[in-house]
Design goal:
Blueprint: E1 2-8, E2 13-19, E3 24-32, E4 36-45, E5 51-57, H1 60-72, E6 87-92, E7 103-104, H2 107-115, H3 124-137, E8 143-147, H4 157-160, H5 166-172, H6 181-195, E9 203-209, E10 213-219, E11 222-226, H7 248-257, H8 261-270, H9 273-278, H10 284-292, H11 296-320, E12 325-329, H12 330-335, H13 337-344, H14 356-360, E13 366-367, E14 376-379, H15 384-399
Parallel strand pairs: 1-6, 6-8, 9-12, 12-14
Antiparallel strand pairs: 1-2, 2-3, 3-4, 4-5, 7-8, 9-10, 10-11, 13-14
The structure holds adenosine-5'-diphosphate.
Length: 400
């Protein structure tokens, strides 16, 4: 089945056309700077030349029109008729407590998504715009929603409740939700395959480390805890986000620096994390280079980043009562030899023995520990788009 997978942000649409029979991406691309006169569409069809188009794309509906046109284009396209698109799968950030799995998007689902806007004011509105645009241009094609939060719906109350008055949870749904669920689910399933074991007998920690980063404790195939919380700000140190911090800092800094709610939000989400500590960059490659050059603040940033991951490995091993595998994924998790090395250093007591040679080999799925390592460390490239396509196929087939 050919499925168009969409990930819509406030000024961008990322897309992939996936053939589920072969699990291959026939084309991938993105429209950036939607709403501006110099919007850019980059399109990479498999086996054909990549193209880049610059022009005025004022909204998501026009962007969708361009995406479909380029998919149909005689020279760069991968389909000859829009009827070949059998379904559309959308990445949706926040499913709140309503969605614990992927769904066919109906009017009722649209309403529930609108009800969840308050929980994800930055993400859910563009997701909704993308769904509306796709419906407009592909009116009879089924659309499915795959939620970032869904995989973590299995977290027990002791993992998702905050230590604040319970009535705030009831009144405003303030609890931990967790994100990157599609990635944590995918890599934990792949890990079981790679280890030739059944997922329901494994205790796995998954570390998705990209610009945003989160870890999950996956026990018997279910997420029992994760580092991101009510929003994607909690947990690990990230490129520009602070991760865990004492909440009193927020009110203290607001007073000292006379910051508004929105300013303090920007500080914690955009000017903290790696860039906040190093004062240089949110990009791990640049941080690593600066560490090599002897930059003190970049070294602090790198150390806080890896130390926090290490702490969560320990705490999740305790939470699950053991550990079989630690999986690294995301741009940093998949590519940074140094981050994996720092996280796994002096972890023999927990049964982790990283093999330096395997750790240094680039690319693809691999076991990075020695043969006698009780806990296996794995590198698994994530593929959220494939999960979205496969979920969409399943839902559409079941509804036929
Ligand atoms: P996003 O969360 O936006 O999808 P990615 O998963 O692509 O981001 O991850 C981006 C991060 O991966 C950046 O910090 C980048 O520096 C880092 N990264 C990519 N390649 C390497 C590498 N070879 N070594 C270290 N870090 C890397």
């Amino acid at each position: 089945m050919k499925i168009l997978v969409l990930n819509c942000g406030s000024s961008s649409i990322k897309y992939q056309m996936i053939e589920t029979n072969t699990q291959e991406a026939l084309a991938k691309g993105q429209v950036e700077r939607i709403g501006m006169s110099s919007a850019v569409l980059t399109h990479e069809p498999k086996g054909k030349e990549k193209i880049r188009i610059v022009g005025e794309i004022l909204d998501h509906s026009i962007a969708m029109e361009y995406v479909i046109a380029v998919l149909l284009s005689p020279n760069h396209g991968v389909i000859t008729d829009r009827k070949e698109i059998e379904a559309v799968g959308h990445r949706v950030v926040h499913g709140g407590e309503t969605f614990s799995g992927s769904v066919l998007i109906t009017d009722e689902v649209m309403k529930a998504l609108k009800d969840n806007i308050e929980l994800a004011p930055l993400h859910n509105p563009p997701n909704l715009k993308g769904i509306t645009a796709a419906k407009e241009h592909l009116p009879n094609v089924p659309q499915c929603g795959v939620f970032d939060t869904a995989f973590h719906a299995s977290m027990p109350p002791h993992a998702f409740l905050y230590g604040i008055p319970y009535k705030l949870y009831k009144r405003y749904k303030i609890r931990r939700y967790g994100f990157h669920g599609t990635s944590h689910r995918f890599v934990s399933e792949r890990a079981a395959k790679l280890l030739n074991k059944s997922l329901d007998e494994l205790k796995i920690i998954t570390a998705h480390l990209g610009n945003g980063g989160s870890m999950a404790a996956v026990k018997n195939g279910k997420s029992v805890d994760t580092t991101m919380g009510f929003t994607p700000l909690e947990g690990l140190l990230m490129g520009t986000r602070s991760g865990d911090l004492d909440p009193s800092i927020v009110t203290y800094v607001m007073g000292k620096e006379e910051l508004s709610i929105s300013e303090v939000n920007t500080m914690l989400n955009k000017h903290s994390g790696l860039v906040g500590i190093s004062g240089e960059s949110s990009d791990m490659r640049e941080i690593e280079q600066a560490v090599e050059d002897g930059d003190k603040k970049a070294t602090y940033a790198f150390d806080v980043f890896t130390y926090r991951i290490k702490k969560y490995v320990g705490s999740y091993a305790a939470a699950m009562g053991g550990l079989d595998a630690l999986v690294f994924t995301g741009g940093i998790g998949e590519n940074s030899v140094k981050v994996r090395e720092a996280v796994c250093k002096e972890m023999e007591f927990l049964g982790i023995k990283l093999d330096p040679n395997s750790n240094e080999k680039p690319n693809g799925e691999a076991i990075l520990t020695t043969n006698d390592s009780k806990v296996k460390v794995l590198r698994i490239p994530t593929n959220e788009e494939l999960v979205i396509a496969m979920d969409t196929e399943k839902i559409v087939t079941n509804h036929k």
